Amino acid sequence: MVKIAVLVSGGGTNLQALIDAEAAGMFPNGKLAAVVSSSPTAYALERAKKAGIPTYVVNRKEYASNQEMTAALALQLKDLGIGLIVLAGFMYVLTPELVDAYPNAIINIHPALIPSFCGEGCYGLHVHEKALAYGVKVSGATVHFVSAVCDGGPIILQKAVDVLPEDTPETLQRRIMEECEWKLLPKAVQLFCDGKLSVEGRIVRIAD
Ligand code: GRF
Q: Is the pLDDT at 28 greater than 90, yes or no?
């Protein structure tokens, strides 16, 4: 059984998708075991409590650097026996300490088709503003393993949606969440927990 930790900072709709997937029996080999928030007021914490998942708050101000915070987090997650870390809107860039402790065992969801509209500073509504400003006709979401390069790790799953002429960053964001993110993330977690993902270089192979 893979113990899963979900790291959040905000509303937690992706966390909710995972909670719903677990309740629907999608993770026979996994268990949501911890929700870690960078903010004590994140609504994601309420969702976790309602689902009976232990919650933790990591306060960046208590640490001298992102590096110190990340190292402490890595130790805590190891202590809890966590085998898979899911970044679902966690707002701090984690330093290599976590990747070293969890090679190919950290999954991130990004609301664009990587390698477009990604990298440092490309988060939240900015992603969709950039996609609209560029004039792309499709966008979507990417689930990938986390490496030392921001949004640069091996891609697990991607899904596209049309960009519509009347789209605003908000409507595009919503469509990508509903049609891509909330489906891809549970699927990727399921594949990981079922032992179906293997990584060769930057290529992720998915077993049948
Ligand atoms: C999502 O857009 C996700 O792609 C990004 O952060 C956002 C989190 O939203 N990494 P929520 O907290 O899951 O609602």
A: yes
Q: Would residue 128 show up in a list of annotated catalytic residues for this protein? A: no
Closest residue to atom 8 of ligand 1, CA basis: 89
41-65, pLDDT tens digit by residue?
999 999 999 999 999 999 999 999 9
Residue in 197, 205, 26, 8 with CA at minimum distance from that of residue 105:
197
pLDDT tens digits for 74-95?
A: 999 999 999 999 999 998 878 8
Q: Which of 60, 114, 30, 53 is nearest to 44 (CA)?
A: 53
For ligand 1, atom 6, which residue shows the shortest CA distance? 89
Please report the atom of ligand 1 found closest to the CA of residue 12. Answer: 12
- Residue 52: partners with Cβ closer than 8 Å, 6 or more residues away: none
- pTM tops 0.90, yes or no: yes
Do 108 and 143 touch, CB atoms closer than 8 A?
yes
